[in-house]
């Protein structure tokens, strides 16, 4: 199956068409979109690599750039930018350098571009072999810390609200959801109830994250019948061990169920 590339360009210029033809010649499947929030939202889940052909128009699409930046950071997309020095500088100022995987100045060296995409494809393959975890918490500091702890071992997606979690689950099915028990607007228990009512994701394991470790609080959490819980006070090694233990037990149970068929 060909690797899918999202080519973002303003209209069908000669150079943008040339980029598409060369990518297709290199056996990539190209999805072409204009730089709009609506089109990116529609196609972002189909690909992991964005190729953005820049132009002066980037000065007029600030909303799109902010949205693209958030998508790249939260959903771990790779962004390759093609343009002249000023355009690349403007993009870097708008989305921050850590959002951009690589830049190519015009006229683009297609050999270097395809070599970069080949490397990223290998990285994506290795990443997708890992278990995926959706981490839901309204505390950005805690999210950043947890993502840093888990990133080496798992594919981690972070969201800051129950609403964002449900939007993500509409198009994705993670191997595990780590869900904050206490969140404003939509609480963890409410999110769990909505997840369990959705046919496509009702079987996805959910573990609560809770800051309260007293017996009364834990009994209250377990009464909702999650697949487990983690105390936020646990250190990195304890968190990793608990998640590893969960996946190992789940795998053993799956093997046992198959052997009994």
Notable characteristics:
261 residues, alpha/beta, Rossmann fold, 2 domains, 5-stranded parallel β-sheet, 10 helices, 10 strands, 47% helix, elongated
Write structural notes for this entry.
The protein has 261 residues and is α/β, with parallel strands linked by helices. The protein folds into two domains: 4-127, Response regulator (Rossmann fold); 130-259, 3-Layer(aba) Sandwich (Rossmann fold), CATH 3.40.50.2300. The chain is 47% helix and 19% strand. It is built from ten helices and ten strands. It has helices spanning 14-25, 37-43, 62-75, 85-95, 110-128, 140-150, 162-169, 188-196, 215-222, 236-259; strands spanning 4-8, 29-33, 49-53, 78-83, 102-105, 132-136, 155-159, 176-180, 206-210, 228-231. Strand 9 (206-210), helix 9 (215-222) and strand 10 (228-231) form a beta-alpha-beta unit. Helix 7 (162-169) packs parallel to helix 8. The mean pLDDT is 89.
CATH architectural type of the largest domain = 3-Layer(aba) Sandwich
* Biggest sheet strand line-up: 2-1-3-4-5
**Per the principal axes of the C-alpha atoms, what is the gross shape?**
elongated
Radius of gyration from CA coordinates: 21 Å
The CATH class of the largest domain is identified as: Alpha Beta
CATH superfamily of the largest domain: Response regulator
- Helical amount: 40-55%
Detail the topology: elements first, then pairings.
Blueprint: E1 4-8, H1 14-25, E2 29-33, H2 37-43, E3 49-53, H3 62-75, E4 78-83, H4 85-95, E5 102-105, H5 110-128, E6 132-136, H6 140-150, E7 155-159, H7 162-169, E8 176-180, H8 188-196, E9 206-210, H9 215-222, E10 228-231, H10 236-259
Parallel strand pairs: 1-2, 1-3, 3-4, 4-5, 6-7, 6-8, 8-9, 9-10
Helix pairs in contact: 7-8
